[in-house]
Structures are given as C-alpha cells and as structure tokens.
Write a structure and sequence with these properties.
alpha+beta; globular; transferase
Length: 282
C-alpha cells in the first residue's frame, strides 16, 4: 500500500490584485519558500477521508478528486504547514493543493494544474499556486488570464502587523474601485507582465507599489506610510497581502551593498514587530 505525499508553496500576498477588463477579478501571486505538506494513506474499507483538525477544506478537496475518478474508498490525510492562517499567505490553498497531490501520488491518478484549479475553486477563492509558472489568475472562477514565467531572484523583507482576516469572506466581497483605480491596476498589470517576462526588476517593484497603494483604501494596514518610505529609501518594491495582515519590501539581492541588515532593523523599529527575510520562489 503506497503512502502518497504532496507539497505546495504559499505566498506573501500578491504582487498585484484587483480587477481587469472592467469586471474580472484577478491576482498575480507572490510565491515564497514556505510550504504545506500532505500525507495520504488509503483505507479501502472506509468511504470517507479523515483529516487532522482544521483541515476540512483539504479533505473535501480530496473527496472531490476521488469522486471525479469515481473511486469509492477513503483514507487518512495528515496536513502540516509552515504557513500561518488568516494572514493572506495562501495557507488553505496550499493545504488543498498539497493534499490533492498526495492523493494523486498515492493512487497514481492523473492530476493536471487545471483540474486542481477547478476543484480548489469549488471550495473557496484560491491563489493560482497550483501552476508551475506565475499566472494572472481569476481567483473566483479559477481561469488563467495569462502566464508570465518565473520571478527573478528577489529577497522579501516582511512583517506581520497583527490580526486575523477571513480571506475567503474578504475575497467574495465586491470591491468598489474608482475609474482611476482601474486605470492604475491596468498599469500595474502591464508592469508586472513586463517585469516577469523580461526579468525587469524595477517594473516588478513599480507594479507591486501601485497595487499596494490601491489596496490601502480597501484593507488599510498599520505602518503603511512608513513602509512605503522605507521602500523608496532602499529602492525596493512595497508589497502586501491584499486580503491579509502582512506587508513587506521586495529587494534585489545583487544591488544592496550591505544595506539589507539595516533595512531589517528599520522595519523592526518602525513596526514594533519582528521582521523576517525570505526568498521569493523562482
């Protein structure tokens, strides 16, 4: 009896999130090197999937996968994650994707990125992290708007400003963007596309800054102005979880000349919270 194992990375919010084409919600995820891991052990004498506490979305996703292939048995699912919940870091999406991959690995089931997306969006708005490349993604219906390739090498200096956001409910709410916001979101989208497809880091920074500033009207974050000032001083890109509690600054690790340690200290002094450094997933 084979034990199935699956992994999926999380995100530090989004590079850009908003609407495009007047009405279509989208996001461009910002992948990081923190993961959810799922282990699945089949049990052919039961028909349900049992999961550890607070992982009901992941177990439901696995049941939908078994139903899709008309398999009439269950199993035991264990999910472990490095991603905190309620912070906008794609914790439940990563749990779902990792769990689906574990079941598919166990039972040797074909599992495309598109199928994962279709199952995940039946459960909740999701993040597009099932795709190997960076995508502009409709987080409500699971369609890929465009594929951009990979991120260049970047460091992320982040901090959690505290609190908890029900990201599922937040992403279901309609956002009232102004005409100017929509124009700026289109600009951010185009800059992100240029930055990701051409490896143009300054365009990535500009895109994230535009989107973060628009989102400040939707979900305000403490210390936003101070973090924006730091991003300009250190020539980085301000980035936020658009439906969460984390805020950070993207940096080019090849152009800092010893300033990175000072930036980490500055973030801690400004926010009063312990900052952290992580690599953007490339």
């Amino acid at each position: 009896m084979k034990i199935g194992i699956g992994y999926c990375h999380g995100t530090f919010g989004e590079l850009v999130q908003g609407i495009i084409n007047e009405k279509d919600p989208f996001l461009i995820p910002l992948p990081i090197q923190l993961y959810s891991k799922a282990v699945f052990l089949p049990r052919y004498n039961v028909k349900e999937i049992e999961a550890n506490k607070n992982k009901c979305k992941a177990s439901f996703a696995c049941q939908l996968l078994l139903d899709y292939y008309q398999l009439n048995h269950g199993g035991h699912l264990v999910v472990q994650s490095q991603l905190p919940t309620g912070k906008g870091m794609a914790s439940s999406s990563a749990d779902i994707v990792a769990s689906l991959r574990a079941v598919a690995d166990c039972l040797s089931l074909p599992l495309t990125e598109k199928l994962i997306s279709e199952i995940a969006t039946k459960i909740e708005p999701t993040d597009g992290i099932m795709y190997d490349e960076i995508v502009a993604y409709n987080y409500l219906n699971g369609t890929v708007i465009e594929t951009f390739g990979k991120f260049p090498e970047l460091l992320l200096f982040g901090v959690d400003i505290g609190g908890f956001i029900d990201t599922q409910q937040f992403n279901l709410k309609e956002k009232n963007y102004s005409i100017d916001d929509k124009l700026r979101l289109k600009k951010a989208y185009d800059l992100a596309k240029k930055g990701l497809t051409e490896g143009h880091i300054s365009s990535i920074f500009k895109a994230s800054m535009i989107s973060a500033k628009i989102n400040q009207k939707v979900l305000p974050k403490k210390h936003f102005e101070e973090m924006e000032r730091l991003s300009k001083v250190y020539r980085g890109g301000l980035v936020v979880a658009h439906s969460g509690t984390v805020i950070g600054i993207l940096m080019d690790p090849n152009k800092q000349n010893g300033k990175l340690k000072r930036l980490l200290m500055d973030i801690g002094e400004i926010t009063g919270s312990p900052p952290f450094i992580m690599k953007v997933l490339t």
